[in-house]
Automatic annotation (TrEMBL):
Domain Release factor glutamine methyltransferase N-terminal, chain residue ranges per copy: 8-76
Species this protein is from: Kocuria flava
Gene: prmC
HAMAP family: RF_methyltr_PrmC
Classification via Pfam families: MTS (PF05175), PrmC_N (PF17827)
Enzyme class: transferase
Gene3D superfamilies reported for this sequence: DNA helicase RuvA subunit, C-terminal domain, Vaccinia Virus protein VP39
Protein name per UniProt: Release factor glutamine methyltransferase
GO-annotated molecular function: methyltransferase activity
Amino acid sequence: MVSRSLGQAVRWAEQVLAEAGVESARTDALLLAGHLLGLSRGEVEARAVIGADEPAGYAELVAQRARRVPLQHLTGVAHFRYLSLAVGPGVFVPRPETEVVVQAVVDELRRRLAEGVHRPRVVDLGTGSGAIAASVAHEVPQARVHAVELSGSAHAWAAENLRGSRAELVRGDLRTAFPELAGRCDVVVSNPPYIPAGAVPREPEAREHDPALALYGGGEDGLELPRAAVASAVRLLRPGGYFVMEHAEVQAGAVARILTGAGFTGVTGHQDLTGRDRATAGRRPDAATDGRMSP
């Protein structure tokens, strides 16, 4: 094999990835090189300018990425808000739109702290890689964070990402999780599976590598598990408690109706960074305003 400079190798990789349909071809080419060299993207670009050599194993990694193996599976890392999370086969790779959901949780917890609530309690239903729970535990250390995940492989990744965070992680079903916390939680958050059975993802990275258990929400509308998450939130939240859930853009109206039908008030949508309706939130009524609750 003819040796190449780092700059030549990155340009070659960018072309290969672009031809394979990878939209972020330049970025991925740099990040794969950085993974092998232990350098940031900017440092790779600087090293390329001064004529450094192509790292060993680069062509093999590029070939895997061209076959649409997720970048995060190749590097073993997903960057999410302020954290670098361990990810790989068997777990859903966290997406940027979920960062908006975390922000809604963080804002609510900080509001409660400012009002004098001591150690507010939050539950993450279907934590996957642990991205939401780990971020909340990191950004609001005063909060008591609990997370549940059904998949054994995803649970293992979440355990790795939550190690040292003091968050409680259990393996179980979001429908029945944490019975001991019924009516005691300040915030419940969920990014449940919500893709309808017939709506196979277009992106090969999701279609071929994200676990089906993390994608498909059940039922023709994909909302079976989101409905279950809403029911669990009703069970877990104290009066006045806050619930926020991610969903597909086209499901925003349906999810708002589900929350309203479950008795939530102040139901509002949250947009992701591209302006799409990707989460809906509501508040459990105060006992004084809800005849179904005991005083």
